[in-house]
Amino acid sequence: MRELINDPFYEKIKSYNRCIIDYCLIESDTPHQGYRSHLDTILFALDKVNERYTDDEPFLWSADIEKAEAKCIDSAAFLHIPDDYKSKSAVFGGKLPYWYAFLKTPHRNGYGKDDFVKINDVLFPNGMETLEVYEWNTDWSNYFDDGHEWWGAACWSIYDRILNRYVVIMASTTD
Q: Which of 95, 112, 117, 168 is the Cys-Cys partner for 24 at CB 3.0 to 4.6 Å?
């Protein structure tokens, strides 16, 4: 596996410097094998995100992969933003949705629905029909501990069948 560090997405996300999501775009040398490939990908992504942060502080996130569980979810639901997303009463049923992780951070970021769409247009240029999305639990790594305190934590792995690449999206923060 290798991170696609030269992908145009990484240049685009730089303009969203208040984004608290960790994104990792990955290409694999092995054929896609469903759940197993997604599992390998989240571990690889955690290592890559670890490398990004250890330059600043000597902390390594650990993983207990035996605790990692995921379910395949609908790509349209994953990328959906409710009409009332700006409302304080926007309810999402306990799981942190991707739109919320991008737009509703503990410290306001000023991003709107158009920003969310722009980012995902770069991430998923062929649309949502070619995506296989897994939503992971977040008790398999201490990366997610801050989010468990208050705001929330989330992890998704997305396989794009046309681009033959994975996108891992992880979020965890507190106030």
A: 168
The two beta strands, 165-173 and 152-160, are antiparallel
Distance CA 22, CA 162 (A): 23
Distances (CA, A) of 97 to 32, 50, 74, 82: 25, 23, 12, 10
SS3 103: helix
Per-residue pLDDT of the chain (175 residues; tens, 9 = 90+): 999 999 999 999 999 999 989 999 999 999 999 999 999 999 999 999 888 876 656 567 788 989 999 999 999 999 998 887 776 555 555 678 999 999 988 888 889 999 999 999 999 999 999 999 999 999 999 889 888 888 889 999 999 999 999 999 999 987 6
CA dihedral 24, 96, 58, 55 (to 10 degrees): 40
- Residue 124 one-letter amino acid: F
Q: Report whether 79 contacts 120 (CB < 8 A).
A: yes
